[in-house]
Description:
single chain, 521 residues, alpha/beta, ten-stranded mixed β-sheet, three-stranded antiparallel β-sheet, 19 helices, 12% strand
Amino acid sequence: MISITDIRVSAVAAPPTGFGGDPRNIAQGGPVYANVYLQVFTSDPSLTGSSIIFTNGRGLQEQAQMTERIARHFLLQTSIDVSQLHEGTKLGDLAQQMLQDPDYAWLGAAGASRMAIGAVINALWDLMSRFLKLPAWRALLTLAPEQLAALIDFEPIADVLPPAEAVQMLQQARQGMDARIDDIHRHGLLAYNTAGWSGIDIDTLCQQVRDLISRNWSMVKVKVGAEFAKARLAAAGRGEWLSRTQLDELASRAAEQDCERLSAVFDTISQNDQRLKQMTLAVDSNQIFDVQSAIVFIHKLAKRLYRVNPSYQIQWFEEPTSAQSAMGHVQIEQALTMSFSDFEPPLQAPISTGEQGASPSVFKDLLFAQLGRFDHEKTYALPVLQMDYCRVAGIADNLAILLLAQKARQQGRNVRICPHAGGIGLCEGVRHVQAIKQALFGANDNRGTADILEFVEEPSRSVHEGVFNNPALISNGYYQMNHEPGVGVDYADAGLELYQLPNGQAWQTKSLQPLARQISP
């Protein structure tokens, strides 16, 4: 028997750089990319499990405290044999014990408590994978369909996805899976780069795009809506109470400014990308709009770009409004679909969200919410799905979300599965979720459009190599999936020496020490 003997929760963070995130972050010097880092130790000194929770700045304290409490409760007060986690439904039983806990469920089954439970589930997944000496995605795929289904809490989603149907879907997914696994090892996972941060000028942005083209990236994502957020915050600072008309005017003016920025990016791609299939472009507004402002902004932005060149169309518009509002996304998509219906060539601006979706229930509504009483009136909310590695309850919830998306595809929906990875440690973790998706359900949506996975890099410092023992690596625009055991979110000694709070080397400047003390648990 290999037992769990102790846990350790650490705070790790990369100091702000002055760009990235949204205007609310930038006004404070940029976001602090931070991890709650959970390590689980066993009676076998060579076997340790790890997981992370990504957060920003001051939220690190509360999340670390919650994670330590939950990890100690479930891992140190229960007898767990790590060597048997892959047998029967043992891993699933542990996941259900946590997800069904009545006291933590009372907190809302979302937010800090669910993320902490997810960290524990992911650490157990990492332990199982390391015991089996397999990459985490390959280890999970050794489990039978019934074992995989045992991970999922069906109670809130069974109206759309009953347990028996999930098992049947997983059984069907076994057909051709070996060939898909071989393809993942040979080619990797298609990736895009988030380089177009708020806070950088157009010339710098276009230079970054040229660099990405030279390195064979297939898509870049650019932040939009900064001017709307700045104007709204400025009005609040002046004590102004904005009317609906004034908000619409702010959204319209902001769209004009972002059109100039995006037109420059499209021009740069057109002039510099000589590949047969040129780089594409997605945009992200980080939830800064209400529903009506989002409709005004996207409508104007998409039409102005179309007038410049009908080929200047975005792959998706990410997080137009609150990720918790499924019906808000339905309203936005329905309004845009109706507005763009007469364009020839067709004009589209697909809506995407999911990185802050807190549970499979949110994704059920985002994927299957509808308006209208008749079939021809039904409008589903989410053409592009962007779940996060650690916002939900780990691999248990992410497996449920993948199955919900696959069911939507089986119903004829063109749902792309393009997970979020915009933060330290997320690329390392979510690559395994995407590999599981691709092995089970393939690389494309129903139209043959490829699913694509986010990757974040920073020109001034590393947040991958030298930071993690098994960092996420990109070659020619594809994640490379190696054969190292585990998930790969375990920090290298050098990474901890650099970023661990409060005494990491990156935090030793006089200007950063107060912030390091402020956000440390």
